[in-house]
Specification:
globular, 482 residues, 3 domains, three-stranded parallel β-sheet, Fe-only Hydrogenase (Larger Subunit), Chain L, domain 3, alpha/beta
Length: 482
C-alpha cells in the first residue's frame, strides 16, 4: 500500500506526540491526554461511529507505540500507567507485532463471488471452465458454492462482463506463510510460530490494525540516563530522507546519540565472508548458495523451508558484524539498529549485541519532535567510510554484486535474484532444494521485500525514488577491493 495514506499519517502523528510526551516534564499525564488532544470534544469524527471509539482506538495505538502488546490487554489500565511501565521495562517484548482488535475491520473471508453484473449469458464460460463443480445456474444467473471453490480465478478470467470478482482480505492475502487467520469474532490473529516478521501485513492493512511494538521510549530512556547510545544506520537509509547520511549523522547526534555508524561497514564484511564461502562451496561442487543477510528470509528458512537450509550461506548479517564492532569498541555501549523493516527486530531479539531497533518511521517522528530541519544541518563525517558495494546492500541485486566484487574473479558468479518473498517464490526455492540445482544461477540473492530493503514496511520513500537516491549517493564511493 502507498505510504501516502491516512493510516500512515495517523501512526506518525501518534509517534510524534508520544515522543513529545516523553520529552515533557510529565510523561504519564501527557501520554494519557493524547487521545483527547487528537479528538477533542465536539470535533469531527473522521473514521469511526463516535468520538469515544475513536479515542479508544487511539489509546490502543499509543499502547503499541509504547512497546506493549494489545492481545489480552486490560482496558482498565490507564495510559499513564502504561507510560510508567515503559520506563520500568528491562527489555523489549518477545513478539514484534500486535493486532489492535478495535481497529480491525473483521473483514469477510477471502472468496470469489458473482456480482449483479452477471447477464446470465448463453455461453456460460464460467460454468464450462470450472473444474471443481463450484458454479451452478440459479434463476438464470451464475452462483458460486464457496465450499467447492478453490480460488483458481479461472471464472474471473473468462467472464465477458467482468461480473465475477475476488474479494480479498489484505493481511491474509499478502502473508506468504499463512500466519494470519481470524478468531471467532472475525478479527485478525497472528500465529507467531508461523510468522516470519516480513511486515507485509503491516504495510497493506488499510485500517492500520496490525502494529509494530515500538522500542523508541526504551531508546530515549537510555539516552536520558546518560548511556552511550550508538545508532547503526542501515544502507537503505540513504534513500529515505531529504538529506545525505552525513547530515543524518548530525541529526542523530543532536537527538542525544553518542555515535552513529554505517551498517554498510558490516555489509563489507558480509560480502567478503560470503565471497570466501561461495568460492569454497563452488570448489566443493555445491550447485548453488543463497545469501543470508535478509532477516525475513532467514526466518522463512528456519520456520518453513528447512530443505534449503544446507544451501544458505552461514555468513552473518551486516547488522551482526556492525554490532559486534560497536561492542568490541565499547562493551558498555547501547546499540540501536536503525531499520527499514520489522524483520530486523526479530533478528535483534536473538542477538545479544543489538540492544534495540528504531525503524525509519520512528526516526522520522523523532526528528519532527525535536524540530530538526535535516536539509539545514552541517555534515558530520564517519570514522570509517564504507564501500560502494556495502552501501548498495539495500537494493535488489546489491548483495549479489557485492559478493561478486569481493570474490574478484575467483569463481564464476551467476546471480539469480529472488525479488520478494511470496508463495510463488517460496515454491521456486523449494523446487531448487528438491532438485538440488538452480537452472538460473549459482548465487541466489533472496530479498524478502520487492526492491530490496528499500521496500521494507517501515521505509518512508518509494522503492523507485529510494533506489535512485542510493545509486546517486554510492557512485562516488570507493570500491570494496580498496
Amino acid at each position: 500500500m502507498d505510504k501516502n495514506n491516512q493510516a500512515t499519517h495517523l501512526k506518525k502523528e501518534i509517534l510524534i506526540k508520544t515522543i513529545k510526551a516523553f520529552l515533557s516534564n510529565d510523561f504519564g499525564e501527557n501520554t494519557r491526554l493524547i487521545p483527547f488532544e487528537m479528538r477533542p470534544k465536539g470535533s469531527e469524527v473522521p473514521y469511526r461511529c463516535c468520538i469515544y471509539k475513536e479515542r479508544e482506538i487511539l489509546r490502543n495505538r499509543i499502547i503499541a507505540s509504547l512497546g506493549f502488546t494489545m492481545e489480552g490487554a486490560d482496558d482498565r489500565v490507564l495510559l499513564s500507567s502504561y507510560a510508567q511501565k515503559a520506563l520500568e521495562r528491562e527489555k523489549p517484548d518477545e513478539h514484534t507485532l500486535t493486532v489492535l482488535e478495535l481497529a480491525c475491520k473483521g473483514c469477510v473471508p477471502n472468496r470469489i463471488f458473482v456480482t449483479d453484473l452477471c447477464q446470465g449469458c448463453v455461453a456460460r464460460p464460467c460454468l464450462e471452465n470450472c473444474k471443481f463443480g463450484a458454479i451452478s445456474i440459479v434463476n438464470g444467473k451464475s452462483q458460486i458454492d464457496s465450499s467447492k471453490c478453490k480460488n483458481c480465478t479461472k471464472c474471473i478470467q473468462v467472464c465477458p462482463y467482468y461480473a465475477i470478482v475476488k474479494l480479498v482480505v489484505p493481511c491474509e492475502s499478502v502473508c506468504p506463510v499463512d500466519a494470519i487467520s481470524k478468531d471467532e469474532q472475525g478479527h485478525a490473529r497472528i500465529d507467531f510460530d508461523k510468522c516470519i516478521s516480513c511486515g507485509k501485513c503491516v504495510s497493506v492493512c488499510p485500517f492500520g490494525a496490525i502494529h509494530e511494538k515500538s522500542q523508541i521510549i526504551d531508546i530515549l530512556l537510555k539516552i536520558r540516563q546518560g548511556k552511550k547510545v550508538v545508532a547503526m544506520i542501515a544502507p537503505s537509509i540513504a534513500g529515505q530522507l531529504p538529506c545525505n547520511i552525513y547530515q543524518l549523522k548530525t541529526a542523530l547526534l543532536k537527538c542525544g546519540f553518542s555515535d552513529v555508524v554505517e551498517v554498510a561497514q558490516g555489509a563489507d564484511i558480509t560480502a567478503k565472508n560470503e565471497a570466501k564461502e561461495f568460492n569454497e562451496r563452488m570448489q566443493e561442487g555445491a550447485p548453488f548458495m543463497t545469501t543470508s543477510c535478509c532477516a525475513g528470509y532467514n526466518n522463512l528458512v528456519d520456520k518453513h523451508l528447512s530443505e534449503i537450509a544446507p544451501y544458505r550461506s552461514e555468513t552473518k548479517t551486516p547488522m551482526y558484524y556492525t554490532a559486534e564492532i560497536c561492542k568490541q569498541k565499547d562493551p558498555e555501549a547501547v546499540t540501536v539498529f536503525v531499520s527499514p523493516c520489522v524483520a530486523k527486530k526479530s533478528e535483534a531479539l536473538k542477538n545479544p549485541n543489538v540492544d534495540y531497533v528504531m525503524n525509519y518511521e520512528e526516526m522520522g517522528a523523532l526528528f519532527v519532535a525535536y524540530k530538526i530541519e535535516l536539509s539545514e544541518l552541517e555534515p558530520t563525517p564517519f570514522e570509517v567510510e564504507s564501500s560502494r558495494e556495502g552501501r548498495n546492500f539495500g537494493i535488489t541485486g546489491g548483495v549479489a554484486k557485492s559478493v561478486e566484487a569481493a570474490d574478484n574473479g575467483k569463481s564464476e558468479v551467476k546471480a539469480h535474484l529472488v525479488n520478494g518473498i511470496n508463495k510463488e517464490s517460496i515454491r521456486a526455492l523449494k523446487g531448487f532444494a528438491k532438485k538440488g540445482e538452480c537452472e538460473f544461477g549459482n548465487l541466489i540473492e533472496v530479498m524478502c521485500c520487492e526492491g530490496g530493503c528499500v521496500g521494507g514496511n517501515d521505509c518512508l520513500n518509494t522503492v523507485r525514488t529510494a533506489t535512485k537516491s542510493i545509486n546517486d549517493f554510492t557512485k562516488d564511493s570507493k570500491p570494496i577491493a580498496e
